[in-house]
């Protein structure tokens, strides 16, 4: 099972979400940005590295929030979400994604998320009751 980081990246009370690229598994679905854990890394280190590599942003990784285990056709993943803070709402560079958005947590239901991210979306919606 692959361990994958997911960042709940907040800046000025907005949450960063990313749309998966055309031609990739789960194309055009939205997700919380992050990536695969490499040998010798902690999950917070993985998240910080992935956000810097894929989006060109530096974050301060905070507390663990939730874990979601999902079996995709390509294999099982353990998606581990951490809160993170970003210094600027400038739109990140796009390397591995079609689009990014800064949204209010109350807007999460407007986006179609990848299956592994959906339990984390639900938990966020419970935590931030509107």
Features:
130 residues; alpha+beta; seven-stranded mixed β-sheet; 7 strands
Short description, anyone?
This protein has 130 residues and is α+β, with helices and mostly antiparallel strands. Helix content is 18%, strand content 42%. It has one domain: Nucleoside Triphosphate Pyrophosphohydrolase (Alpha-Beta Complex).
Describe the fold and architecture.
The chain is 18% helix and 42% strand. The protein has helices at 43-55, 118-127, and strands at residues 2-11, 14-20, 30-31, 34-36, 59-72, 75-86, 97-103. The termini are far apart. It is globular. A hairpin with a 2-residue loop joins strand 1 (2-11) and strand 2 (14-20). It has one domain (2-127): Alpha-Beta Complex (Nucleoside Triphosphate Pyrophosphohydrolase), CATH 3.90.79. It is of the alpha+beta class. It has two helices and seven strands, in the order E-E-E-E-H-E-E-E-H.
Any idea how many domains? 1
Q: State the CATH topology.
A: Nucleoside Triphosphate Pyrophosphohydrolase
Unreliable spans: none
| Overall average residue pLDDT | 91
The computed structural class is alpha+beta
Write down how many β-strands occur, each being a DSSP E stretch of 2 or more residues.
Answer: 7
